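REQUEST FORM: STRUCTURE PREDICTION
Request ID: SP-0412
Submitted by: Lab K.M.
Chain count: 1
Length (residues): 208
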Amino acid sequence: MEKIYKGRFVKKEEAPEQKKKLSWQQQLFLDAKDILYILVIFMLVYVLFFRMVVVVGDSMNRTLVDGDRLLLISGVLYKHPRQGDVIVASKDSFRNGECIVKRVIATEGQTVDIDFHTGTVYVDGEALTEPYISSPTHLYEGVNFPLVVEDGCVFVMGDNRMDSKDSRNPDIGLIDCREILGKAVFLVIPGTDGGQVKPQYDRIGVID
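STATUS: Completed
RESULT:
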């Protein structure tokens, strides 16, 4: 039997072979490979640009509690800390590099002053409005003020000012921006504050 193929007569057996239909096992294998590639890419992006940390201690109450699990934008992407950012840092001079979660109060070149009698924090002469703190800043820890933040550094404090070791303490002092692991951007899993409270799932969301 002959048929017209690309403008000429050919015998049926001369026509190009039709595409082989894949068996369901072969299709499943190909789909699994695609999924694996996607997972590998996702993991690489996560490892390079994000990380998960767990809050330890009460220094960031009320904003964060002990046991909160946070998503960070890693230092690969987070290069320019801003006043008000919640960051995670690691200083070799403090507890062998243990991670600390604090809020950026001032950046390089700014002047920090604290009136420990009124509990007021000033940056460049202006009193900060701090709705996030659980108590005013009455605790003096050894660093003298006013203090000018050095280049490439930030001044940080915990939101729980009466129970936070931070830049007010000489053991921590200013945080070099190279010591910042990332910015905390999202509360993924709420903690229990050492088992004292039930997880409050309505807290899940963007960190202010």
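NOTES: The chain has one helix and 14 strands.
Reviewed by: T.R.
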